[in-house]
Amino acid sequence: MTAGILRMIGALALVALAACGGPPPAATPDEVSRLAAAIAALGPEVDRDEARRAAEISYAHSHRLALEYEITDPPIIHNTKVNLGIKPRGLCWHWAHDMEKRLAQERFATLDLHRAVANADNAFRLEHSTAIVSAKGADYDDGIILDPWRKGGRLTWMPVREDDAYNWEPRNEVVARALERKHGQIVTLTDDQRILMDGAEFVPE
């Protein structure tokens, strides 16, 4: 019996053992208010209405995505189901991509959005992705992570520098390293975090 078949049997057994629950609950007004206050506190230039809107969308979209992704299990179990084709989406990078995309639709004037990755070069830990919101012009690590994957659709947020569970890096730095390893050529990362390969811009998802 091949190793691939054994891994498949193990994955199916894991799925079979996972008890199906319901989707995570929607956020409370107090949860939204706490996130809004934290975003507003990112800098004196942050507009309070934008901070409130970003907080409302972050919680509401986390809940909406949990329903769309059919979240009924802890994250690792759901990942397995996605990889087996049982569930449509819900890997960490799906959450990060869809959260960033939704927030970007607001065209905030006083907030910036970022993507970050952790454990990309750690073979012993699961690679993880997140969206981040910061004050306009601030670095990603001065922002707040918006991570619904970590608790199975319930939004986890905290300042990037206070996240003891993950060591975050800018997503495009990680992508640039991976492209260099894959293609064996120099990949340039510009000051504004654009990836250039063979003189053309590479835009990751």
SSE arrangement, N to C? HHHHHEEEEEHEEE
Rounded average pLDDT: 87
Shape category: globular
Radius of gyration from the CA trace?
18 Å
Fraction of residues in helix: 40-55%
Query: What does the main sheet amount to?
Result: 5 strands, antiparallel
Proportion of residues in extended strands:
15-25%
**Largest beta sheet: strand ordering:** 4-3-2-1-5
The helix/strand class is alpha+beta
Q: Which regions have little confidence, pLDDT < 50, spanning 5+ residues?
A: 11-19
- The total strand number stands at 8
* Number of continuous helical runs: 6
Instruction: Give the distance, in angstroms, between the N- and C-terminal Cα atoms.
Output: 37 Å
Describe the protein's architecture and organization:
- There is one protein chain.
- The protein is of the alpha+beta class and 205 residues long.
- The chain has six helices and eight strands; from the N terminus they run αααααβββββαβββ.
- It has helices at 3-17, 29-40, 48-68, 75-83, 92-104, 171-183, and strands spanning 111-118, 128-135, 144-151, 154-159, 168-170, 188-189, 195-197, 200-202.
- Strands 4-3-2-1-5 form a five-stranded antiparallel β-sheet. The chain has a three-stranded antiparallel β-sheet with strand order 6-7-8, with helices on one face.
- A hairpin with an 8-residue loop joins strand 2 (128-135) and strand 3 (144-151).
- Helix 2 crosses helix 3 and helix 3 packs across helix 5.
- It is globular, with a radius of gyration of 18 Å.
- It starts with a helix and ends with a strand.
- 33% of the residues are buried.
